[in-house]
Write a structure and sequence with these properties.
The protein is mostly helical. The chain is built from 13 helices and no strands.
């Protein structure tokens, strides 16, 4: 009986060599390092050339950043990865170019507006005060803005909500297409056109005279398409299974909309309404045509001229005196705070009403 002897080499405990699939990659801090180097190089070039404009320095730094990212990435990771990184670099450059002016404007407004912003400024009007002297406040403008925006919201929200419900739940045929077309047209209407329309109808045709309510009508025209569009998109996000389940239980369609569809989309609807309110709060042109402005406190939006924060900023800036400039910056800061609060409230409501995931 013969035995076959298999010759085995002693194992060394090492795995056979395999071809590595890993490629060289740049470290995570490389983009930040390239950005800092680009800024330093652009600053040095700007100082050497005697360029006083920091905008030129920034544009040159952006160009150095994009070019440097492409060259270094091509040398380290290859041309394919370099194309991906250069696209990312362009996005970051565009983001910085967009955010720098906004941050500069916000910082300037806070810096100059905070000098005059105090309790006296918020609780007094311009009644009986010489426009060229210090003092005065924006109490009358705050009242006008709150009343005009509130009236516009009370008119636009129910109409916009019902229009969106019709388009999503019932709209079929030529009427729905016509409504959609006119909503799209209204979205692009300039604010001055809305003001001129109300001026030619409400003020001149019906001889109602300037008032806060007239300004609210123009703001309603500007707010309505935003409410319709945002509500329409939120209603479309509601799953059809929820509607079908409710209808399968014998619930009427109007009750399904009221009890199922609207509660599901209420977070997004509220966010859209808040954003629409923030959009009209800073309108100046229709208010200038229809409300005219006033230095006195007028609590009645249906009778007589009124003030508003955007109009107050415009009028104080047009005076051209140092004190009027200070009041304009202070009113602009209050307006920005008002819009920011509305946006924060919208985001809070959206998060509060967002569908819960998990248990």
């Amino acid at each position: 009986m013969s035995h076959t002897v298999i010759d085995r080499k002693p194992s060394t405990g090492e795995a056979p060599p395999a071809r590595s699939l890993a490629h060289r990659r740049m470290p995570r801090w490389a983009p930040a390092g390239i950005a800092l180097a680009s800024v330093a190089l652009a600053s040095a070039l700007g100082m050497a050339a005697g360029w006083e404009s920091r905008v030129q320095w920034g544009m040159i730094a952006a160009a150095f950043f994009v070019i440097g990212t492409y060259v270094i990435t091509t040398a380290v990771e290859g041309s394919r990865q370099a194309k991906d990184r250069i696209a990312t670099s362009v996005v970051w450059v565009c983001f910085v170019l967009a955010i720098v002016p906004l941050a500069s404007l916000a910082w300037t407004t806070v810096q100059r507006g905070s000098r005059i912003l105090d309790g006296y400024f918020l609780s007094h009007s311009m009644a009986g005060l010489n426009q060229n002297t210090p003092g005065g406040g924006i109490y009358h403008a705050i009242i006008g803005t709150l009343e005009q925006v509130a009236i516009a919201t009370l008119i636009a929200v129910p109409i916009g909500l019902l229009t969106a419900i019709y388009l999503v739940e019932y709209g079929r045929g030529s009427l729905a297409r016509a409504i959609t077309f006119f909503v799209d047209v209204m979205t692009g209407i300039p604010s001055i056109v809305a003001g001129l329309f109300i001026l030619s109808t409400w003020v001149l045709t019906f001889d109602m005279g300037p008032s806060g309510f007239a300004g609210s009508l123009a703001l309603t025209i500007l707010m309505l398409p935003v409410v319709v569009r945002s509500t329409e998109e939120m209603l479309k996000l509601v799953p059809n299974e929820l509607r079908e389940a409710s209808l399968a239980l014998g619930v009427p369609k109007w009750r399904t909309i009221l009890k199922v569809v609207l509660p599901t989309a209420i977070g997004g609807i509220t966010t859209g309404v808040m954003l629409a309110v923030a959009r009209i709060a800073g309108e100046t042109a229709p208010v200038l045509l229809l409300v005219l402005g006033s230095s006195f406190i007028n609590n009645d939006p249906f009778d007589g001229t009124q003030a508003s924060l955007p109009l107050y900023v415009f009028q104080e800036y047009m005076l051209g005196t140092p004190h009027s400039y200070d009041r304009a910056w202070g009113a602009a800061l209050v307006l920005i705070i008002f819009v920011m609060v509305l946006n924060l409230v919208a985001r809070g409501i959206a998060r509060w009403k967002a569908p819960k995931t998990g248990r």
